[in-house]
Amino acid sequence: MNFKSSDLTNLIVINTFLKDKKYTNKELSEDITYIYDRVHIIGVHNEQLKNPDERFEQREVPLNGNEIISGEFLIFKYIAHTEEMYIKEFNSMNEIENEIIAPGGITNPFIEYQLAIIKGKVKEYSIYFTDQTDSKEYKFVKGYHDDFDLKKPFNITNRRIEWMSER
User: Fold this and answer.
1) So what's the pLDDT on residue 27?
2) Cα(104)–Cα(50) distance, rounded to whole angstroms?
3) Which residues are 121's β-sheet partners?
4) Which of 145, 147, 148 is closest to 156 using CA atoms?
5) Looking at residue 145, what is its pLDDT?
6) C-alpha neighbours within 13 Å on the C-beta side of residue 29
7) What is the pLDDT of residue 70?
């Protein structure tokens, strides 16, 4: 599947930075420009969009919205404290799941967003994990279970994903 970068970026912005917020066209435009300036595209079918520098810093050449991004299975990942972001292509749902539940996935305190885009649509999910300290299973809450300042930090193991039904 192929997507115009402007369409994909709009989908990303309204499902991450502006999710559950009332926003103006100006705010939407600013966030889209922010992504165009910083996002790195990774994947076999998207080599032409790869940043030549290979570091996750600002792109040498920002996207303009007309690029074509390919892939049925994509993840948008954002690391807020470094402003690193990328759209990565995967080969299957299994690869997507493994990426999300990996230690470097959404349960990692440094990962702000990890948005699954399957066949051009956002696929929402919930993460469950076992706390190694008490052997109980919890539904993962971003910003709580991965908070460094908790009095009783969670020792997250046995992550699993549950996909939400289509809206």
Assistant:
1) 96
2) 21
3) 118
4) 145
5) 87
6) 3
7) 96
Q: Which of 87, 140, 138 is nearest to 109 (CA)?
A: 140
Q: What is the DSSP string of the chain?
A: -EEEHHHHHHHHHHHTTTTTS---HHHHHHHHHHHHHH-EEESGGGGGGS-TT-SSSS-SS---S--EEE-SEEEEEEETTTTEEEEEEESSHHHHHHHHHSTTSTTSTT--EEEEEETTEEE-EEEEEEETTT--EEE--TTTTT-TT-SS---EEEEEEEEPPP-
Residues 6+ positions from 66 with CB-CB distance below 8 Å: 4, 5, 6
- Distance, in Å, from the CA atom of 88 to the CA atom of 96, rounded to the nearest integer, reads 10
Q: Which residue has the higher pLDDT, 26 or 143?
A: 26
Angstrom distance (rounded) from CA 112 to CA 77: 8
163, pLDDT greater than 90: yes
pLDDT tens-place string over residues 4-60: 999 999 999 999 999 999 999 999 999 999 999 999 999 999 988 887 766 667 888
